[in-house]
């Protein structure tokens, strides 16, 4: 009789230990599952997807320092394309140059004022002249701040009877400013000047 009671007591202890082990295991599994769920949700929230051509592409964030050369080159390119892309329309000229002047300091404004005072823009309008620019390359030195740059470009000046191709080389410096809708890269061009602007060839238009 005592042996039977001892066996029952042992069985009860084993059952309690087994139950405790099962409960601890369930708690551990639930805790791990909840932790992984939160981690997965946080990871998904940190991802940004861009729709391009009907496909979802994942975008990865990076520090500004990693993108300085790329953003600096694009800033310089955007400024030159806006400043030198001109059509024989005073409103189009004003719109482009206004956008360009948000990207540079007073040195660009002085160049614009000089061109305006010398009748350059009026000549484009009266002569039905269109001007476009192709930026060939932009060299940016990010070793020292403010960042020095040099821009190499080719201008095309289309007149009613001829097409002139010009070589344009400019230089300046870039300093950091706040990003905005008018200045998405957050750079400002300083001490901008033209170091070369010469004719390469002129061809008659037929």
Keywords for this structure?
206 residues, alpha+beta, 4-stranded antiparallel sheet, rod-shaped
* Strand order, largest beta sheet: 3-4-5-6
> Biggest sheet, open or closed, and with what strands and sense?
4 strands, antiparallel
Q: How many whole angstroms does the radius of gyration measure? A: 34 Å
Query: What structural category do the secondary elements indicate?
Result: alpha+beta
* Strands, count: 6
Reading the helices and strands in chain order gives HEEHHHHEEEE
Helix tally equals: 5
Helical percentage:
40-55%
How much is the average pLDDT?
A: 87
Q: Measure the end-to-end span.
A: 122 Å
Unreliable spans are none
Strand content: 25-35%
| Shape category | rod-shaped
How would you describe the overall organization of this protein?
The chain is of the alpha+beta class and 206 residues long. 47% of the residues lie in helices and 33% in strands. The chain has 5 helices and 6 strands. The chain has helices at residues 2-45, 64-84, 90-101, 106-117, 120-126; strands at residues 48-52, 55-59, 130-141, 147-158, 162-176, 187-204. The strands form 2 sheets. It has a 4-stranded antiparallel β-sheet, with helices on one face. The chain has a two-stranded antiparallel sheet with strand order 1-2. Strand 1 and strand 2 (55-59) form a beta hairpin. Helix 2 packs antiparallel against helix 3 (90-101). The protein is rod-shaped. The relative contact order is 0.11. The model has no long low-confidence stretch (mean pLDDT 87).
